[in-house]
Amino acid sequence: MTRVLVVDDEPQIVRALVINLKARKYEVDAAHDGASALELAATRHPDVVVLDLGLPDMDGVEVIKGLRGWTRVPIIVLSARHASDEKVEALDAGADDYVTKPFGMDELLARMRAAVRRAEPVAGEDDSVVVTDSFTVDLAAKKVNRDGRDIRLTPTEWHLLEVLVRNAGRLVSQTQLLQEVWGPAYRTETNYLRVYLAQLRRKLEADPSHPRHFITEPGMGYRFET
């Protein structure tokens, strides 16, 4: 069974999520503040975290950073904050998706399923290693190394990188990337690609403003070059 950690200080939202998730056969743990969330994550090892940013003891972004210090568990931010810079801050800290309150339960569940699916290992994974002048991608180990150290990627960043690397030298359309990484419901969400490609470039390119490996083909898609 998939284990979900719900982190929110609004009791009615926690109650609604727990009831709906358990009805769909999820195992659920709940935390009402950041410290409890980090402790539960360490002891219960959830498969996905649903996290509110407005917590009483610390900002949700700090919780994301705390989790990303040791785990790549998918994190879906659930927040009433609508400003795009706050969404980008959460994504930059390591969140995988962002759902704005008020939200539909079906949408949240769909995004949870997609996040968990992206984090699962791929059956029959080969052991190919792709080497560039800036970094190395180990597809089997799901690791990226730059300058002798491992680079921490979120599951979504990894999945996007993996699709591009496996199609090295070929143009991958925006629609194909969105469908493979986020699912068919997100085929028009091109802003997702802009945000996540910017994150990959920032983490892996020597000069993110003049990328050598993650090439944008305007209006069409993206291409990975070694």
Task: Write a concise synopsis of the structure shown.
Helix content is 41%, strand content 21%. With 226 residues, it is of the alpha/beta class. Strand 4 (75-79), helix 4 (84-93) and strand 5 (97-100) form a beta-alpha-beta unit.
Explain how this protein is built.
- Helix 2 packs parallel to helix 3.
- Strands 2-1-3-4-5 form a five-stranded parallel sheet, with helices on both faces. Strands 6-7-8-9 form a four-stranded antiparallel sheet, with no helix packed on it.
- The longest helix has 15 residues, at 105-119.
- It is α/β, with parallel strands linked by helices.
- It has eight helices and twelve strands.
Per DSSP, what share of the residues sits in E-state strands of 2 or more residues? 15-25%
Whole-number average pLDDT? 89
Spatial arrangement of strands, main beta sheet: 2-1-3-4-5
Total helix count?
8
Q: Provide the structure class.
A: alpha/beta
Q: Low-confidence runs (pLDDT<50, min 5 residues)?
A: none
Number of strand segments? 12
Could you tell me how far the N terminus lies from the C terminus, measured between alpha carbons in angstroms?
39 Å
